[in-house]
Every structure is written in structure tokens, then in C-alpha cells.
Predict the structure of PD-(D/E)XK endonuclease-like domain-containing protein.
Amino acid sequence: MDFRDMPPELLLAVAGAALSFGLVQTLRLAWRRAWQRRRLSRCRAQGAAGEARAEALLRELGYTIVGRQVAVSYGVQIDGEPVSVGLRADYLVAHGPRRYVAEVKTGRLAPRIDTPATRRQLLEYRVAFDVDGVLLVDAESRRVRSVVFPLPAGAAAASPYGARLAWVLAAVVGGLVAAMAARSAG
């Protein structure tokens, strides 16, 4: 088609429509990016406020804050090849001799264990951290919930106190045997 045969008014109308469409699309995309940035900023502020409330709640309930934004890495294998996975938890806390990873959630769905992303995150924490358990902290309703996963016996997430207790008992028995041997020799 030869554009020289078209009336100039039609060409101007088509060009104006194309320009208007381009302008509307540009404005729509700019508004969408600004809205996403604002939403992300709001979520970060809500999360930071939730973490502050959660820390105060944990302290009120007798937990000691061992660390904030605690990072670990653990290894997995993919087709026999080792891969290191990095992970960061909101809090590492202690209550008496027991240590926990505490994950703070805000909003309507995130603090629920039936939310798949939350459940998977807590399970990964249980496997990756050398702790006795995981806590799900709902900062808005001021609830701290202990989450127990049905891990197989001997799993990496088994309590480290069992192994420590075995070593302590072995040391005590070794000490008693050495003391008895020294006593009978002297």
C-alpha cells in the first residue's frame, strides 16, 4: 500500500492514535512501577515494625535474643554435585538451654502455617540451623507458636543436645575409669 495515496487527514489520525496509545502505555507502565515501589516500601516498613514488636514480645515471654538477621549456609547435592545454599532468619533466640529460630510474619496470610511459603521457610530453617526448634511469630496478633515438623530419626535437624549429652557422658565415664585406675595404682 502506498501511503501517498492516503488522505493526509487519515495519516494524521493514525499517527495521533499511535502517539496517544504510546503515551498511555508509557504512563501506565510508569504508574505501575511507582505503585510497585511504594508497595514494596510499605511492606518493608511493615516488616521492620513487625520485627521490632516481635522482639519485644519474645523478650516479654522470657526468650533471650541471641542474634538478629542470622545468616547460615548449608550444603545440598544436586546430581551428586555439592551446592551451598544461603539463608537468613529474623532471630536466633534462646529459652533456657534450648535455642530456636524465630521467624516474624505480618499480614493476614503469612503468619499461618497453612500458607505453603511460610511452612516451607520454617522447614528449611529447621533443617539448616543447629537449633532445637522453630518459632512462628505473628507480630500483629502477638502470638508465638512453636512449630514441630515430623522429621525422620537421625535427620540433620535432630536436636544437637543428644550428641552433646553422649560426649559428656563419655567424658564422665572416661574420667571415672581414669580415677579408679589411678586409685587402684596408688
